[in-house]
Amino acid sequence: MSDQKIQDQEPPIQGAKLLKRAIEQFRQLESIGVERDVAGNRKLLYSHYAGLVLLSLFNPAMQSVRGLTDASKLRKVQKLIGNQKVSVGSFSESVRVFDPEHLRVIFEQALESSPAAITGAGPRRNIPEQIPDQLLERLRIADSSALRALPQIVEAVSTEANGKWRLHLQFEPLPGTPAKLELRPDETGGDDDERVVLAKNLVAGRVYVGDRGYEKYSLFHEIVTAKSDYIIRGQSSRPATVLESRTLDNEARIARVISDQIVQLSPSRSKPLNHTVRRVVIAGRSQGRVRTDRSNSEEIILLTSLVDVPAHVIAAIYELRWSIELFFRWLKHLLGCQRLISCKSEGIGVQVYVALIAALILAGQTRGTVGKRAFNLICLYLQGWADDDELRAGLNAICRAAQKR
Questions:
Q1: What dihedral do alpha carbons 141, 143, 147, 153 form, nearest 10°?
Q2: Phi-psi bin for 259: left (phi > 0), alpha (psi -120 to 50), beta?
Q3: Would you say 184 and 197 are in contact if contact means Cβ atoms under 8 Å apart?
């Protein structure tokens, strides 16, 4: 029997039907990045690259450039992604021409067509009802996460910037997706400081939410100049003159609001701020034993340009800031992004969006619950260690346990 007949009779990759839909969506990317290839020499297309990255998220043996290129030599992998073997050089070079934004569009399309029970692509989201939809759509949470401790960063990253990198992210809590991401050296001050990075990526019509690391009066000024607003946590030691104290209603007290004031900040420079600043102070949630020596340390001081939004809504918006922390944790530990396939910001963007698409695959199989046990079971299924009935039985058991909690 010929090799071709043997190949045609071989079954597809075990569990490939779980990935087929996503890989079919990647085919619309085939024309992206080939504009300069007038000679028609490019063999590794965007759709192939994204397909290989998707496979790597479910298989630890493929979570490196060498692992992916070795896997691309296998007939079953070639059949699934629609491409022949890929060299290390071709894989590493191709990412420069693949814009992650095209994958963002595919992810949003997949999210819209997902079952109603799937409300987002990360950890469980809990959006407070107090926040109006019109305001919720404007929210962007800003934060960054150090990557220097990740164990499998490729050699190029380790030699550049001494392996100390930071992923800067703008996260939209309503869809549960990143809106903007950038990889920069992990430095304090200068062009790589998280406040400078945010200032360079501002857009109009947003409400930027950040922790104390983003407290900088010049950043406040730039956000308002960009026709956006902010809610950023401040420090109690910052001097400010109270111009107006507002009466707290019952909803504000339930939200643990202590005070609501219009203030005049005292910038270190002579240039005044170009807008009215509001200071909302919230009592921290009591955790563990009461600390009598830190009576004010648990207060959360929020500085904002939103002067007309009710104080309890300001408090609810800041609670959403933790969704980006959960997203970082989920991204690193659940979907293999502890191992960066590329040191380029474009490559990391591709990996993030492919991971989000993979999360929808998981959520579709687990009724919206994305957890490590379900992820591990699906990985075993895709690697051929579990049959269809075992996968269904295992996922049903996990879903039942989640519903009881």
A1: 30
A2: beta
A3: yes
Which residues sit opposite 242 in a β-bridge?
263
Cα–Cα distance for residue pair 215/388, rounded to 1 Å = 52
Q: Inter-axis angle of helices 388-404 and 372-382, to 10 degrees?
A: 180
Task: For residue 257, give the H/E element and its range.
Answer: strand 257-265
Question: In the structure, how many helices (H) and strands (E) does the chain have?
Answer: 17, 9
Instruction: Return the bridge partners of 241, or none.
Output: 264
Q: pLDDT tens per residue, the chain (405 residues)?
A: 444 443 444 444 445 666 777 888 888 888 776 655 544 556 788 888 888 888 888 887 787 788 888 888 888 888 888 887 888 888 877 777 888 888 888 887 777 766 555 545 454 456 888 999 999 999 999 999 876 533 333 333 334 445 567 888 899 888 777 888 777 777 777 888 999 999 999 999 999 999 999 999 999 999 999 999 999 999 877 788 899 999 999 999 999 999 999 999 876 555 678 899 999 999 987 554 444 544 445 799 999 999 999 999 999 999 999 888 888 887 777 666 666 677 677 787 888 888 878 877 777 766 666 677 888 888 888 777 888 888 888 888 887 776 666
Specify the 3-state DSSP secondary structure of 202.
coil
Angle at 246 between CA 244 and CA 248, to 5 degrees: 160
d(CA 33, CA 350): 13
A 10 A CB-CB count for 122 gives 26
